[in-house]
Amino acid sequence: MATAEPISKVCLSSPSAIERLYKSCDGGRGDEVERVLEGRVTQEDRTALANYKSKETGFTPLHRVCHHGHHQCIPPLLKQNADPHIWDHCGFAPIHCAARGNHTACVEFLINSRDCDVNEKTQFGETPFLIACLSGSLEVARYLYDSGGYGEEDSRGNNVLHYAAASDSAQLLLWLLSIHDFKALIDSPNNEGHTPLHHACALGCTNSLSALLHHNVIVSSLTPSTTHLLHPSSSSHPHTLSHSEVSKSVLQLLVTPRSQGNQQCWRKSAPGGH
Question: What pLDDT is attached to residue 203?
Answer without folding.
Answer: 87
